[in-house]
Amino acid sequence: MNNLKDNKEKALNYFGKCVIEEVYDRALSGAKRIVKRTTPNHMDLEQYDVFSEFSQEQQEKVCDLLAETVMDTIYRFLEMVEEHDNEFKICVEMNKVEYNLIDISEKMGSEIADIDDGWISQFSQI
Q1: In whole angstroms, how far apart are CA 100 and each of 8, 77, 89, 110, 115?
Q2: pTM above 0.70?
Q3: How many CA atoms lie within 13 A of 18 on its CB side?
């Protein structure tokens, strides 16, 4: 029975790792490069030229807001899926066994947001 619990936890964490690495980190790092003016994309630099006038502190505050916004967006998406669990499913297949993450998690949104144990603290490289 412990093996089943471990596999469920692995499935949930695998999904969380994918969400953080492929959504959270990628979105946030791209936005931060624009704010901090380190992006190699000249079109972004021109479009968001206003950030060149920001102080270091202002840039950091914008980056903090971006991090909170990206996290909140993912959180709300996961909560929406959970609230409509009759219509939506998030499943992970491991070793030919399918795990419904909504059934495994107590609260999907809190998986990302928990400061000590959440997916961001576990898997983010930012």
Answers
A1: 9, 16, 7, 16, 24
A2: yes
A3: 9
